[in-house]
Amino acid sequence: KEFEGKRNIGFFGFLFHLLLLSLTIVFTAANAFLFLIAWEVMALVAYGLVTFYHEDRETRRAGLLYIVMAHIDSGCLLLGFALLMKVSGSADFASFRAAAAQLSSGQQATAFVFFFLGFGIKAGTIPFHIWLPAAHPVAPSNISALLSGIVLKAGIYGMARIFLGGLGVLPSWAGLLVLIVGVASAVLGVLYALMEHDLKRLLAYHSIENIGIILIGLGAALVFRAAGHPQLAAVALIAAMFHTLNHAIFKCLLFLGAGSVLHSTGTRNMEEMGGLIRPMPVTAFCFLIGAVAISGLPPLNGFVSEWLTYQSLLAGYGATGGLTRILFPLAGSMLALTGALAAACFVKAFAITFLALPRGAESRQVHEAPRSMLVGMGWLTVACMVLGLGVTWFLPVFDALTEQLLGQRVGSNLISGHGLVLSAGMLHGGTVSTAVIGIGLVILLIPAVLLASIGARRFARKRGPTWDCGLPGLSAENEYTATAFSKPLRMIFSALYQPRREIQAVFDVSPYFPKEIHFESEIEPTFEKRLYVPLKDLLLRISIRMRAIQAGSIHAYLAYIFVTLILLLLFGVRP
Q: Of 51, 216, 296, 419, which is most buried with the most CB atoms under 10 A?
């Protein structure tokens, strides 16, 4: 139904499977040329899927922004691979690893910057994130899930493969840069998500937040590797890669849940929703599981990978020295702040969307999603539970990865208590058991269910109106809104948000008795206004000045060619 009146579904299916094919080649390519070709195909096909609803102006603008950023990241990767191929004499990834020792410090730093920019843009790190909240809301919901769950992870995959397997042992400043960018992406991503009332834009900003959490783990692994602590590096890398897997699962679940809501209500605006838990109970349950997982709450999978990341950061305080030693607990405190804000954000998202009274006609006419949509959300919900409760079954899978990149197998060190306890794998690290937490929650739930069933049999069920604080009657106009929920945080972080609000009152007789009040509030798009708009204006000014050389004269063009040939003869490479 979401595709009705739009475009040919057969063409959509072709692009969808072509994107899956290009992603498969990206993740399996052993040659830089094949990798770059698949990378470019992935970008072009994703552009076609993002702009599937190209009748809308917002969609076309988002698609243009996405393809521009995608080609910038491709250019950075091309330059990075060109440098590695020049040193190694081959385009094979294996030759990059073998020739890493031949890289000078300047070449290593230059290649690192190119790759970090290229893969960072694809992953949506701050400040290269602007395409994400633009493209995700306008794309079909299953494409939003694929973009966030898989396409963004292509950037993480590229960083892990090149930084740990193609550039040799990077200096500590490189790992610290990755760590700092990760902290900034995590904190700013969740702060911007808190201000969103568009359900899919909110989830897009949370993708930026979780990419930041992954980079925190990857940055810690690079720092530990440079400091000569390969076991700690392996634990941090497992935390980053496990969160990569977890984010792919619960973010796909949440985007599919948002797509189910959009399919039933026809809107992405949470202010127009409410009370959806009654007509859409299965969607509400699946979305709740995804919200708990992404908030890092036990015993689900998001908690496990974030807990391992915390343990890695705590270990960094004793394993490093100088300023680096201080940055690790600071990063841990910022990660804790991110987790708390994420929980607050999804309290808002779930409560405003699924609880309370319906806020519009659309909410009163909704229905549960079709079975085909519920099946997709169902197995992802089960995956969130299994990866959380049975985490000790899956951690040894990462041993092959850490052994290849770091020469360490630490998966078994993270498991204790006959497979029920998750350990930090270090002397003074913590332990936790998601299985025991899960069993405890079930044990606490059983008495509540028994009491409720006994009470239902012994006492007649009575229905009455909800207490409305003495008002004549509780209505949707009396409910908390998404704007009101986020206002305290908007005030606390006003230096970042730079909020603007406008209130207009409509009067009939007296200004003391307004007939209507119109309220509008928005925050400043800081990166767009302070960074990208000035950069765009600068490029336009340079382009206007360069128009002078495009005079339309054939004689001028021949002169350009002649000068170019002379320069090539004078400064060209001689045998």
A: 216
